[in-house]
Records
---
Amino acid sequence: MPRNLLLAVRQAFDPAFRAVALKTVAISAALFAALILAVGWALHAIELVGIGWLDWTIKAVAGAGAVVLSIVLFPLIATLAVGLFLEEIADAVDAKHYPDKPEAPGQSILSSTFSTGKLVLIALALNLLVLPLYLVPGINVFVFYGLNGYLLGREYFELVALRRLEPRAARRVFRKSRWRVFVGGILITLLLSIPVINWLMPMIATAFMVHEFDAMERRQGGT
């Protein structure tokens, strides 16, 4: 697994990745800014009890929760952006590292975006559900990496696997390698939570999962 991540990081500097990196960063930044602005507007519009100091306190607490939620959701926002350029990234990895493999049928942009959007909605609901736990020191780390590690690992796996396999076959590979996918998802979540690095991580995470999927297929002797 570390070797596969290193391969993905090295390829991030290839010419084939640069245009995708710029587009991914731009879209991720725009989506993140839109989320922050929406939260700020909603908090500004709230008039809860009509008592100045109490309204200010409630908004301050809600604002802190909104900031935490925005940080928590960044990995998912970035994943939504990368879904638009999945094929470009994965094809570049295949061309460099797996030239002997048959060309992947791939997914349409609509299919990959729909799949990623579904994950974001599910993740939003689950992260809202556990939001109080994010405010508890110690517990918040385990909840954040456990929940989002599973969600991101599963999503990046499906984005990559469905390029080559039918959904039923992809689920079969996932069941046999679920712990590997989970650990990979935690690693992706960890790197996505590091400032500056996180803007490039969706692209690197996709390349990383292409390598991981190839390793899973070889371990399972094909599908």
---
Amino acid sequence: MKLSWLGDRAFFRRLISIAIPIALQNLLVNSSTMIDTMMIGTLGETSLAAVGLSSQYASLYFTAFFGFASGGIMFFSQYWGSKNIKGIQQAYGLALTCMLIVGFTFGGMAVFAPRFVLGVYTDKQYIIDVGVSYMRVIGFMFPLQSLSFAISCLLRSTERVRIPLVASVAAQLTNILGNWLLIFGNWGFPKMGVAGAALGSIAGAVVNVVVLYICCVRTGDSIVLRFREQFGWPLSFIKLYFVKCAPIIANEMFYGVGQLGINIIMGRQAAEGIAALAIFRVIERIVFVFFGGFTNASAVIVGKQVGAGELATGHRDAKRFALLCPAATFMICMLIFPLRAPILAVFGLSGASHSLGMSMLAVYTVAGTLRTCNYIINDTFRASGETVFGTVIELSCLFFITLPSVWLAGIVFRAPYIAVFSLVFIDDLVRIPVVLWYLRSGRWVKPVTEEGKLALPLFKEGLKAKGQLNVK
């Protein structure tokens, strides 16, 4: 059967079987976040801005541990392709340990130094005063999130996507109910405001972990539950893991620092802009619902193919994902575009905040499409063993183009808020032609399995033959 340039039935079957459950899980998580924000929005724009700044700290935490998770996904998917269960167990144990260290570190800062943390993001004391009670509680959630995210990454990478979906359903329902009870004091519970929202989130995180383990016990999972095999790593494996992961970890850490710098600048703009940005982040995460499904499917499918030695097939499918993902993002943004006004009004924005939100979503229709294209290509590189190129191009553009541009516009020239916001995405415009060229070159295919390494010489010969690969 002749293959379509966009994908044949087998490709779309694999894509749907992985991407749809993950997209549904992401939709649940982000719908819960949206409902949280709507509930908090009824408390006023100050509470909304305070929780929004706390969410930026949570995003920094996510960035800090995501490097270890991405490294783990690379090993999980490639070892899954070569059926190396022992290698998967070792990679899971090492990734989990590193992610928990990050979780406890960030959680400790949130619990014991919330004013310092919030003071980094804004100079507005009245917002900090409201956010302190939220931060002190939400810090206990970070280690739980590290644990649940590590388990979910493992299960997704080994094509068992239903368990994380079930756990997410239970967690988000718990979170929504907890917020409804504790924010407003319903059914006789204490009325706690933003602190109640934090407690609801923790309740959901606990349920997520518990359900994940219960499901793994019921299905007899041989990787998550065999604790002994997850530790006692050989020195050679530790070296291989950190050699491959070091660029990703550096990427995520320095990217987090760069984003922190951007958030500091944005937090020193008009208060109306801070509130509008908090709502924009929620809507942006809704768009990323579908992007997350694509990028996880790409990492699993292409990583598995590279690990199994099917390098030409992996190269072909990676190019398909690079087209499908931004196309889907653009269509979603176009659906949101005419509904911007009522969506923002539902979140409680009005006046100047509402006008800024309208403009921000208009900018994102184009900027978001470029950003998701860059993201999925970089994640595909990582799953295939290439961890350096994406780091170099992403950090170079962030620190030498985006951060200086935002600083000049926001601090030096005091440009209008929407102009400062637009410059946050300028690096994506620069990166896109470079990463597309590297994707086409195939130089990013760097297997960690023996099967993949054995197939590499023939794959390189195919690349030299006018870029034509023989794909069965």
